[in-house]
Design a protein that fits this description.
Distance between the termini: 53 Å
Largest sheet: none
Strand content: under 5%
Number of strands: 0
Order of helices and strands: HHHH
Structural class: mainly alpha
Shape: elongated
Helix content: 55-70%
Length: 92
């Protein structure tokens, strides 16, 4: 999960042609790593901290989803630069 979220943190700004993510978003892959470590620890030590791990992962994923949606919503009104000045001509 941390690797996937790290890659998405990099490629979402690239694909939406927007600024780099702020520090709050860049820390989400580390939160996913911490949630995974807590889950492994909870199964190894026979305690119930996995509820905290699941909540941490779910909260981080929800924040990340909101960030992706905000980035994508700004994309909908901007045409791709290659499309400017090109008219679609249909055959008569």
């Amino acid at each position: 999960m941390p690797l996937i979220f790290g890659a998405m943190t990099h490629f979402v700004p690239v694909l939406t042609r927007s600024a780099a993510p702020h520090a709050g978003v860049q820390i989400i892959p580390a939160l996913m790593l911490a949630a995974g470590a807590l889950a492994v620890f909870s199964f190894a030590a026979a305690n119930q901290i996995y509820y905290l791990a699941a909540f941490l992962a779910l909260a981080a994923a929800a924040v990340f989803f909101g960030w992706v949606v905000r980035r994508a919503s700004g994309l909908l009104n901007k045409p791709h630069p290659a499309c400017t000045g090109i008219s679609l001509r249909l055959p008569a």
